[in-house]
Amino acid sequence: MKLLLLLGFLIGCNAASTRQERRFPDDFLFGTATASYQIEGGWNADDKGENIWDRMTHTKPNVIKDVSNGDIAADTYNNYKRDVEMMRELGLDAYRFSLSWSRILPNGLSNKVSEAGVAFYNNYINEMVKYGITPMVTLYHWDLPQKLQDLGGFANPLFPDWFEDYARVVYEQFGDRVKHWITFNEPREICYEGYDSTTKAPILNATGIGAYLCAKNLVLAHAKAYYAYKNDFAPSQDGQCGITISVNWFPPLTDSKEDEIAAELYRQAEWGIYAEPIFSAEGGFPKELSEKVAQMSMEQGYPRSRMPEFTDEEREFVRGATDFFGVNHYTAFLVSAAKDTEFIVPSVYGDTGAVTSVPDDWPKSASRWLTQAPDSILNALTHLNNKYNSPIFYITENGWSTRVEDGLEDDDRIRYYRAALESALDVLDAGITLKGYMAWSLMDNFEWMEGYTERFGLYEVDFEDPARSRTPRKSAFVYKQIIKTRVIDHEYEPETRTMTIDEGK
């Protein structure tokens, strides 16, 4: 018995030691992420054009929880050197940020390029490159030029041409230094929330139609920008181009057939209509959801399906048009078949016939939609890896919100990040090709419809200070230690709250 106990003790110690010693590879990219409208400010600086968030927050300010806007935000337009200093303090390998389309092309079209806008991004990128930080650039993070929205935006069949023109300008200006391109950030939030609903600009509320129309034009635009890069720029610039899709995990509530079907339809509506055309072997919109929408459209009296079809040529053009799969992941929801729930008719989620729930014991953030779900990164990436023939992945966003009054002591964020990164190590252990992780966010910013009431930053921003001073939270020191050691030490406590730059990195 004593021998068995000793063996058990040694095995347990070895397992704990092995878990503690799991390391991220040296070439794994650790970074943070931000978006142009959320941090830049300078909304009308120089000759920058108006975008859809400028228009909405200025004409309908009450749609924002605290009636705020991004006119100044964190004022990165004037503080970009401090931003890069923060990146150096953390020891980041990479920084993911987005370009403001209307800062570069004030009218949205490529006939006029802003010298001031190009200069700002050149300065920002050069400052990163100077210190060995890899820029990962998103072409579009929700801030469409208003002049293009006036012409229909993503609903206009000419949108893919406009986007390709913009992308070519950007590749030409910055591609000698930028080797990681992302075309679109979170198509669901663009198409469903902005076009099908009222939870993001331009709040069109074209329910049951807007998301599907937007989705087709968006993936066509992505493919045009991708092939423009691969054919005309990558041979000399030697970079890669992909897309970022929000993929939270949606398992069935029970193992019943009804809940399993509901969960699959829900996944297809959430991210499948954007991922399937690009990453699947067949291309086009997801088969099951397409059939369901066609059936419901007929029952609702439409002469044709509310979901447009791809021509054979379009299907082939989009299929495979990517070098990697960027995944924004935050949480999970349990999915079940709806019973007597009333849906808006028509609607995307009415088409799925599914509802979601969250267990009471999952830790809650300051955001009503964000809870800490167990193993959700591993579950989501395993599903994607199996479904789409093992693409290259980057986690391009993952983060946790706190309240304004929570200040610098953010132990709940630290708990969340450590659990998420353990799940990322599980992904690597499973043999899935995960090449990087971008924490959301480098600093507090304008959190869309929630204004400044929710904070995601590793650095706290004082929005009452005209200088927009930035101060590291406790989580910043913990993340810095993980990046430096490539190990998650659950016992690590920062000895000091003074952030310095490690010149030896």
TrEMBL record:
Instruction: Tell me where on the tree of life, at the top rank, the source sits.
Output: Eukaryota
Protein EC: 3.2.1.21, 3.2.1.46
Q: Which Pfam family, any one of them, does this sequence belong to? A: Glyco_hydro_1
Gene3D superfamilies found in the cross-reference section: Glycosidases
Enzyme type, top EC level: hydrolase
Q: Which controlled-vocabulary keywords does the entry list?
A: Glycosidase, Hydrolase, Signal
> Which stretch is the leader sequence?
1-15
Molecular function GO terms recorded: beta-glucosidase activity; galactosylceramidase activity
Q: Name one GO biological process term.
A: carbohydrate catabolic process
Q: Which residues form a coiled coil?
A: none
Q: Which family does the UniProt entry place this protein in?
A: Belongs to the glycosyl hydrolase 1 family. Klotho subfamily.
Q: Report the protein name in the record.
A: Cytosolic beta-glucosidase
Origin species: Papilio xuthus (Asian swallowtail butterfly)
